[in-house]
Design goal:
299 residues, alpha+beta, Yope Regulator, Chain: A, 6-stranded mixed beta sheet, 34% helix
Length: 299
């Protein structure tokens, strides 16, 4: 190889290395959905709900050319696809597809843009990793809209009115059989009653920073006020996307409606505990340590 060829090859490699060096990974976001309407329900869709959807709308000028203005945010799509542009034109993204850059908002933005750009009837089976240059959902979505979650009994929303062949129908039936029965509570936002085997629980995504929420729960627990009435107890909490998700064990013979009043009363007690600016007492610090020892971080 001549010197000129070597110089050209060396120069091209240097240029490529320079371009690669400029692409920075997505920075970590402790609360990736902060600033979006329904932050707590974004967390619920991503972390604790089995089959649920919500509708979002692009900001003016942010949708890919020719794409619908609206999209459906889902918990899970077939085969854990990141996105799907259904044959009827509906755009879906799956929040639980598993991609993780350190900023779930950017990860889902990648899926949203890919699904909106895909041809109708086409799944998005993989997406490029998010980077620091990737827009966030906060950049793409109209934040003046409410974010309303609908809980489904199964995954039939995958296919809409289209027909499935025998193999597809069997796959859908298997997915539906795995569903954990879930009911959205009315007393507080982002509260969900679930039945797992013979046991029932309520999971509540709290909207305060996880440290603030832990202190408030510790105050209530030390005072014996952390339960939801007779036969219930606070089991512990998940940490998810910078928020806290307490979980209560319930009377398995009672349904979700039986706990609406108790959940509302807890909300009042919790708000008062959050508002307190008194230092934690010794008992409250012990309660806090106990809660921390039982916390589990999701993802």
């Amino acid at each position: 190889m001549g010197k000129a060829s070597r110089r050209r090859k060396s120069g091209a490699t240097a240029d490529q290395s320079s371009r690669r060096a400029k692409v920075q990974p997505a920075p970590f976001a402790a609360r990736p959905f902060e600033g979006l309407p329904g932050e707590t329900d974004w967390v619920a869709l991503r972390e604790i709900l089995p089959a649920a959807t919500a509708t979002v709308r692009f900001k003016k000028g942010q949708a890919p050319e020719g794409a619908p203005a609206e999209a459906t945010v889902a918990t899970v799509l077939p085969l854990a696809w990141p996105g799907l542009h259904r044959a009827d034109g509906t755009v879906f993204i799956g929040t639980q597809s598993g991609s993780a850059s350190g900023d779930a908002s950017r990860d889902l933005a990648v899926s949203l843009l890919a699904a909106a750009s895909a041809d109708q009837g086409t799944p998005v089976t993989a997406v490029a990793p998010a980077t620091a240059e990737t827009p966030r959902l906060q950049d793409l979505l109209d934040t003046s809209d409410d974010f309303e979650v609908t809980v489904h009994e199964g995954f039939n929303f995958w296919v809409g009115d289209s027909e499935l062949d025998a193999e597809g129908q069997a796959s859908l039936e298997r997915a539906n059989e795995s569903i954990v029965p879930t009911t959205k509570m009315a007393a507080l936002p982002s509260a969900y009653w679930v039945r797992i085997g013979e046991r029932t629980h309520i999971r509540l995504v709290l909207g305060d920073d996880e440290d603030v929420a832990t202190d408030a729960l510790a105050r209530l627990h030390a005072a014996g006020d952390s339960g939801l009435g007779e036969g219930t107890r606070l089991l512990g909490a998940f940490r998810a996307c910078g928020l806290l998700v307490p979980v209560w064990d319930l009377d398995p013979d009672k349904d979700a409606d039986a706990y609406e009043d108790a959940l509302a009363a807890f909300g009042t007690r919790y708000a008062a505990a959050v508002a307190s600016d008194e230092p934690l007492t010794a008992d409250e610090r012990r309660a806090r340590s106990g809660l921390l020892s039982r916390q589990v971080t999701l993802r």
